């Protein structure tokens, strides 16, 4: 049986606790330093590996892309020059640089998304407003997809274009780059199926079955695109029947109103009958036609992506032939039949 009393046991353990407290008071700074080292080792990598990349992606997500102008020029069957003038607005509170990257262009309105081109984007820096201008040759690897894009552009009032690509972002003060995804969608005005298309000063010749019509065609382009289309042939329809071909050479559409000389081979009998017989004679010479893309050639090459897009939907146009008919001695009014 132990002979140690309770008060004796306490007197033996007390010096140990006192010693620890004394050591902590003497070396508190060492314990604090060790804690800070451990915290730094644990927290800083977490910030660099998790928080900073997340912040970088959020800053990029918050940027706004505006497409100020697009030029599609030097068009060939399998290639073209694509120039894009754009503006990126972003939070510039943190200085950062985004690496150059290959971006894929999608028709955002398609379901599923339709990729129609790839383009190289240059290196950019974080700024309140950054101008990004690109001009490069594009190889058309998917004619069907590029035709679908042009069809949407020509026939709709607006379209969405999505730009997506993998890149890296560099933040000032941090040596390592962080992977991010550039993913932006911009809305562009379309050509709205050439709404407002018109022909002025039409002239009719009765001497030939070919090249017997000409006039000045006015084509509105409400978009920000320049389109080098080329020598374009349209099939003409009247009252649901084909009545000839119209030719517009060197067709290049600029934003705003565009004016071109147009010539045509027109079957004249259906037109003369319409000018003088019901029901179209009641229109006093203003006859409704439809145009559909038939052929497009530029740089001596067929451009199926424009030809098929122009053929996807008929363009409506009303032509006032009253004066041209009067010059041929044909009244643009209803004439009673001899049996009436």
If you had to describe this structure to a student in words, what would you say it looks like?
This protein is an alpha+beta fold. It has 2 domains: 63-189, Sandwich (Immunoglobulin-like); 192-327, Immunoglobulin-like (Sandwich). It contains 6 helices and 17 strands. The protein has helices at residues 6-26, 28-62, 143-155, 268-276, 304-311, 322-327; strands at 64-73, 79-89, 96-98, 101-107, 114-121, 124-125, 129-139, 158-171, 178-189, 198-204, 213-221, 225-238, 241-253, 256-266, 286-298, 301-302, 315-320. The strands form 2 sheets. Strands 1, 2, 7, 10, 11, 12, 13, 14, 15, 16 and 17 form an 11-stranded mixed β-sheet that branches. Strands 3, 4, 5, 6, 8 and 9 form a 6-stranded antiparallel β-sheet that branches.
Low-confidence stretches: 1-13, 38-50
* Helix content estimate: 25-40%
Task: Write down the overall mean pLDDT.
Answer: 85
Tally of DSSP helical segments: 6
Order of helices and strands: HHEEEEEEEHEEEEEEEHEEHEH
Q: Supply the number of structural domains.
A: 2
Largest beta-sheet details: 11 strands, mixed
Structural class: alpha+beta
């Amino acid at each position: 049986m132990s002979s140690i009393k309770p008060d004796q046991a306490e007197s033996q353990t007390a010096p140990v606790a006192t010693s620890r407290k004394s050591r902590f008071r003497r070396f508190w700074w060492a314990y604090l330093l060790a804690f800070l080292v451990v915290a730094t080792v644990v927290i800083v990598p977490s910030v660099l590996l998790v928080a900073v990349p997340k912040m970088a992606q959020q800053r990029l997500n918050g940027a706004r892309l505006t497409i100020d102008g697009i030029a599609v020029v030097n068009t060939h069957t399998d290639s073209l020059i694509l120039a894009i003038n754009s503006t990126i607005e972003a939070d510039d509170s943190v200085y950062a640089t985004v690496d150059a990257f290959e971006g894929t262009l999608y028709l955002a309105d398609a379901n599923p998304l339709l990729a129609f081109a790839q383009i190289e984007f240059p290196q950019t820096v974080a700024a309140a407003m950054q101008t990004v201008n690109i001009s490069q040759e594009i190889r058309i690897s998917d004619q069907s997809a590029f035709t679908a894009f042009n069809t949407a552009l020509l026939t709709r009032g607006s379209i969405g274009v999505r730009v997506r690509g993998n890149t890296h972002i560099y933040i000032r003060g941090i040596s390592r780059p962080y992977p991010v995804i550039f993913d932006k969608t911009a809305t562009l005005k379309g050509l709205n199926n050439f709404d407002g298309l018109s022909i002025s000063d039409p002239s009719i010749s009765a001497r030939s079955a070919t090249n017997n019509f000409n006039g000045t065609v006015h084509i509105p382009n409400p978009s920000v695109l320049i389109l080098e289309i080329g020598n374009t042939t349209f099939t003409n329809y009247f009252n649901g029947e084909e009545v000839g071909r119209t030719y517009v050479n060197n067709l290049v559409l600029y934003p705003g109103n565009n004016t071109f000389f147009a010539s045509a081979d027109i079957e004249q009998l259906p037109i003369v009958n319409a000018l003088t017989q019901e029901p179209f004679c009641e229109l006093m010479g203003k006859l409704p036609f439809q145009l559909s893309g038939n052929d497009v050639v530029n740089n001596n090459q067929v451009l199926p992506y424009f030809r098929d897009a122009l053929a996807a939907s008929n363009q409506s146009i009303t032509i006032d032939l009253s004066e041209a008919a009067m010059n041929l001695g044909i009244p643009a009014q209803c004439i009673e039949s001899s049996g009436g």
